UniProtKB/TrEMBL annotation:
Pfam families with a match to the protein in the record: MMR_HSR1
PROSITE patterns for the chain: G_ENGB
UniProt xrefs under InterPro entries: G_ENGB_dom (IPR030393), GTP-bd (IPR006073), GTP-bd_ribosome_bio_YsxC (IPR019987), P-loop_NTPase (IPR027417)
Organism placement in taxonomy: Bacteria, Pseudomonadati, Bacteroidota, Sphingobacteriia, Sphingobacteriales
A single GO molecular function term of this UniProt record: metal ion binding
The protein's role, per its UniProt record: Necessary for normal cell division and for the maintenance of normal septation.
Family that this chain belongs to: Belongs to the TRAFAC class TrmE-Era-EngA-EngB-Septin-like GTPase superfamily. EngB GTPase family.
Native organism: Mucilaginibacter psychrotolerans
Protein name: Probable GTP-binding protein EngB
Gene3D superfamilies, per database record: P-loop containing nucleotide triphosphate hydrolases
HAMAP family: GTPase_EngB
PANTHER family documented for this protein: ENGB-TYPE G DOMAIN-CONTAINING PROTEIN, MSS1/TRME-RELATED GTP-BINDING PROTEIN
Keywords: Cell cycle, Cell division, GTP-binding, Magnesium, Metal-binding, Nucleotide-binding, Septation
Length: 210
């Protein structure tokens, strides 16, 4: 897939204000500081499209980016960020889970995993929740350039082994680096394959006009 354009469309916290669900969407989510914004910018080759920050939890809204005027990257708030009030965290969790569970045009959830770490409970719990809801997802291991290929392969294998305690088979996975662009072509090819067979879902137009 050749990326010809990538543009910010909107940020919000209300499902009814999201773009009308007639184009395929791919949601990117992971623990705070997993490198989500850097990965998004790397995929579309547009520095600064998704805002990066040294402060975990920078993304606090659902952000939609239109790619090639054909599909959306959806940048979701990271989970596991502790420096917010409990009530605020619960509000975010409810909103994000509602989006993931009910969004008609959502095609796949990209669950970002820091390839430098041993399997984290919070990542496994989130994957289990997606599995319980029957939501399609893949694993995207980030920051592979920060260590040796051997160490990355070891951590990927450990995560796959851990997830197989609750799944019959491990989901497809990609190993990426925002610095070296590794994994970019494979991830875009995966998205392109889904887009080719996408059929716009039925939706309540009046709901999105209200």
């Amino acid at each position: 897939m050749i990326i010809k354009s990538a543009d910010f469309i909107c940020s919000n916290t209300q499902i009814s204000r999201l773009p009308i669900p007639i184009k395929p969407e791919f949601a990117f989510i992971g623990r705070s500081n997993v490198g989500k914004s850097s990965l998004i910018n790397m995929l579309v080759q547009k520095k600064g499209l998704a805002k990066t920050s040294q402060t975990p939890g920078k993304t606090q809204l659902i952000n939609h980016f239109m790619v090639n005027e054909l599909w959306y990257i959806v940048d979701l708030p990271g989970y596991g960020y502790a420096r917010i009030s409990k009530s605020k965290k619960e509000d975010w969790n409810k909103f994000i889970r509602s989006y993931l569970d009910k969004r008609e045009s959502l095609q796949c959830v990209m669950v970002l995993i820091d390839s430098r770490l041993e399997p984290q409970k919070i990542d496994l719990e989130f994957c289990n929740w997606l599995g319980e809801k029957g939501l399609p997802f893949v694993l995207v291991f980030t920051k592979a350039d920060k260590q040796s290929n051997v160490k990355t392969d070891q951590n990927v294998a450990k995560f796959r082994k851990a997830i197989l305690t609750t799944f019959e088979e491990a989901p497809q996975h990609f190993v990426t680096s925002s610095e070296t662009l590794s994994g970019r072509d494979e991830l875009l090819e995966f998205i392109d394959g889904i887009n080719r067979s996408f059929t716009p879902p039925p939706f309540d137009e009046e709901y999105y006009k209200s």
